[in-house]
Each structure stands twice: as C-alpha cells, then as structure tokens.
Backbone:
C-alpha cells in the first residue's frame, strides 16, 4: 500500500476512545468497518497515551462519574467532534466543553437502577428499616407500626426517563400518584401538573420523589417554602441532583423532626464527614449510587454500539444535549 493510500485510509477512519480495556473488549466485536477504538482515561496526557492518533480522535467516551475538571486534556484534541458521558446528568460539564464539540449524555442508561433505588429508599424510610438496622446492632427487638407506601398521596417531580421509571414502578403499590413537570399537559398516562401548581398540590402530598435534572429552573426548587407546604411527617426522596433541594432548609425541617428524607444525592457532594446532615434525625443517606448497578453496563454498551454505528454512517448522534 502506498503512503498516499495509507493516509487516505487513515483520514477516513473513525477513531474513538473508551475509558478502559474492559469497555474496549466488550465493544470490539460490534465495531463497524472503518472504526478503531483506543483506551484513554482522559486523565493522562493524550499524546502520551494515544501517540499521533491523538490528532485524529473524533469521539471520546468519558469514564462514569468522572470529575469535570479533567476535561482540560480533552480540549487538546484537534479533531474531537463528540464527547459522550454515561451519566444522565451533565450539569457539571456545562461551561467546560471545548468550543465546537457536542455533548451526548447517557439518558436511559440509569432509569431502571435509579428508579429501583428511589423506591428502595422510600420503602426503607417509611417502614423504618434504617431504625431496624440500628436496633439490630444492639440486639433490640422493637416492633413499631410504620406508614405504608400503599394509600399515600405520592408526587413525582419529573416525567423524563428517571421520573417516568419511578412512576412505572409505583403502579403496583396502590398509591394516589401525582406527576409534576415544568408545564402542565396530558400524556399517555394522564394528567401532568405544572410546577406552578405545586402550592396547591404540596399540602396533601405525603411522599415526594425528585427525579429531575439540575437546570437553572430546578436549582433550589425544593426550598423552604416548598418544604413548609408539605404536611407533617411527609417524606422527601431525592435521586435527581443535590442542589435541587435547599440543604439548609431541609436540615431545619429534619431537626424539627417534622419531615423525613431519603437521599441518594446531596449538596454538597460528596457529603463531608462532619456535615450536619449526617447527624440529622429522620434522614437516610446513600452515597450517590442510583445508577451504579449491574444493570448499567449492558445498557451503556447498547447505547455506545448504537452511537458508533450512527457516527460511522454519518448520521446524527443520539442524546445530544449540547451542540
């Protein structure tokens, strides 16, 4: 093959990077012709890790739950067209993207796992399983009547992938389900209330599930007024993003033992060891593990396969949220 033919072949080749060798091995059998994958964790210097290929990489898949501060290395790739995250949320990446580079998120990958955890947190808190674990450590048998999920008026904030999956999983639990999104509408499931209706909805809501992404309009949505409008002993379950909830306002309600909370996300995050939220009564905290289950990998691989096929065919990528 002549040097000219080799260069032409290289020019037409689609180069992608994957965060580790396991991902590369899993995707290798499904890569279309003309696509070559490389391993790069985005933390190291791309030229040291990728050599001359660094100048031709077009598609980078970020490691799961990777700090946004590492994107300085990504910005040095001159041919980069698309950055892929396997997280649903991408608020931490906004303002850090190289100019002209599109961002695709992992919408759909974590819906099942995160909605599972949302219900697990709610059931554990309602049925007092957190107290039962503490009692077991002391060998104390303490049967107490607890509230059921059945017959509760349950409000789900968000009708997207995660909010919709929470609503799906609530169906067998015999709840009075109220769904809320930014604007009111009717869909295949029925009525969706707008956030402007929250003042009328909250006083009769006994459980709130938060499945929203973090945006300018959702930041601080669950503030002191929101929480004060809930009835005594209501439960707030957050599997969306920590800053959607005003932490100080929630702390005040927990310390007064008026409300309960079950949180997979917090603000700040990670939650410092000395943060007062750890010691607050009526709260159950998980360390942001909603999407981190065995269900994540096969769903992520399905998305990446579809994404690479589209890119190789010159089609628009899936799940583009910026660009």
Residues:
């Amino acid at each position: 093959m002549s040097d000219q033919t080799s260069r032409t072949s290289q020019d037409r080749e689609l180069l992608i990077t994957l965060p580790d060798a396991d991902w590369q091995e899993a995707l290798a059998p499904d890569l279309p012709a003309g696509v070559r994958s490389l391993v790069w964790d985005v933390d190291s210097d791309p030229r040291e890790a990728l050599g001359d290929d660094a100048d031709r990489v077009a598609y980078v898949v970020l490691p799961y739950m990777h700090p946004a501060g590492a994107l300085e290395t990504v910005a040095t790739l001159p041919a980069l067209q698309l950055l892929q995250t396997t997280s649903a949320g991408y608020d931490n990446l906004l303002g850090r993207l190289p100019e002209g580079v599109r961002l695709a998120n992992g919408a759909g990958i974590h819906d099942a796992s995160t909605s599972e955890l949302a219900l697990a947190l709610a059931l554990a808190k309602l049925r007092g399983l957190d107290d039962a674990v503490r009692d077991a450590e002391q060998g104390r048998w303490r049967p107490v009547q607890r509230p059921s999920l059945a017959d509760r008026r349950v409000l789900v904030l968000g009708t997207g992938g995660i909010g919709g999956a929470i609503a799906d999983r609530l169906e067998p639990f015999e709840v009075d389900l109220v769904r809320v999104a930014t604007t009111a509408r009717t869909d295949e499931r029925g009525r969706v209330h707008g956030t402007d209706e929250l003042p009328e909805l909250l006083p009769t809501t006994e459980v709130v599930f938060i499945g929203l992404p973090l945006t300018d309009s959702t930041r601080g949505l669950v503030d002191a007024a929101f929480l004060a409008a809930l009835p005594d002993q209501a439960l707030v379950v957050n599997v969306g993003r920590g800053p959607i909830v005003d932490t100080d306002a929630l702390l005040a309600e927990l310390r007064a033992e008026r409300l309960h909370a079950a949180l997979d996300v917090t603000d700040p995050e990670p939650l410092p060891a000395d943060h007062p939220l750890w010691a607050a009564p009526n709260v159950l905290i998980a360390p942001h593990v909603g999407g981190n289950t065995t269900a994540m990998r096969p769903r992520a691989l399905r998305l990446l396969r579809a994404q690479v096929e589209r890119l190789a065919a010159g089609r628009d990528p899936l799940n583009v949220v910026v660009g």
Observations:
- The mean pLDDT is 93.
